[in-house]
Amino acid sequence: METTLAIIKPDAVARRVAGQILQRIEEAGFQIRAMRLVRLTRAEAEGFYAVHRARPFFGSLTTFMSEGPVVVLALQAPDAIGKWRALMGATDPAKAEPGTIRRDLGTSIERNATHGSDAPATAAFEVGYFFPGIELA
Ligand code: CMP
């Protein structure tokens, strides 16, 4: 079993497709270990995406991520990190496979509907950022 951090981003919450994304998560067989609706401050978004702070899109990304509420989830499944990344599709919705969340619901490389941890160490940091105390099985 593995646990990963998922975020339903402000674009998806604002467009009222959070429920549709949660349905896809449940139908894919994930166990939802924890879930919060939260509006990030700019500083919280900067802390979460600190690994990207040198990137040219860092300012725009953290402004976007703090523009409205997000749904934050800890998802558990065998190979949860890879399984959630496959369900989301490629970062850029234009390059994501048909039927993936980002292809169906994202509108740009930035406003791409969902986030997922990319490796076990990242998942440990990201799950702990929002849900301190959760064990990563
Ligand atoms: P996410 O999986 O949340 O991880 C970092 C985010 O930065 C990514 O999704 C995109 O929303 C955003 N991002 C990545 N690359 C770019 C880019 N070239 N331009 C703008 N935003 C980007």
In words, what does this structure look like?
The protein is α+β, with helices and mostly antiparallel strands and 137 residues long. The protein has a single domain (2-130), classed as Nucleoside diphosphate kinase-like domain (Alpha-Beta Plaits). The protein has 7 helices and 4 strands; from the N terminus they run E-H-H-E-H-H-E-H-H-E-H. It has helices at residues 10-14, 18-27, 42-48, 58-65, 80-88, 101-105, 120-130; strands spanning 2-8, 31-38, 70-77, 114-116. A 4-stranded antiparallel sheet has the order 2-3-1-4. Helix 3 crosses helix 4 (58-65). The longest helix is centred in the C-terminal third of the chain and has 11 residues, at 120-130. The model has no long low-confidence stretch (mean pLDDT 97). The structure holds adenosine-3',5'-cyclic-monophosphate. The site of adenosine-3',5'-cyclic-monophosphate has 8 residues, from loops.
Topology:
Elements lengths: L1 E7 L1 H5 L3 H10 L3 E8 L3 H7 L9 H8 L4 E8 L2 H9 L12 H5 L8 E3 L3 H11 L7
Antiparallel strand pairs: 1-3, 1-4, 2-3
Helix pairs in contact: 3-4
Bound molecules: adenosine-3',5'-cyclic-monophosphate (CMP).
The site of adenosine-3',5'-cyclic-monophosphate has 8 residues, from loops.
Which structural traits does this protein have?
137 residues; alpha+beta; Alpha-Beta Plaits; four-stranded antiparallel β-sheet; 7 helices
Quick overview of this protein structure:
By secondary structure, this protein is of the alpha+beta class. The chain contains seven helices and four strands.
Spatially, the strands of the biggest sheet line up as 2-3-1-4
In the CATH hierarchy, the third-tier topology is known as Alpha-Beta Plaits
Oligomeric description of these chains: single chain
- Low-confidence runs (pLDDT<50, min 5 residues)? none
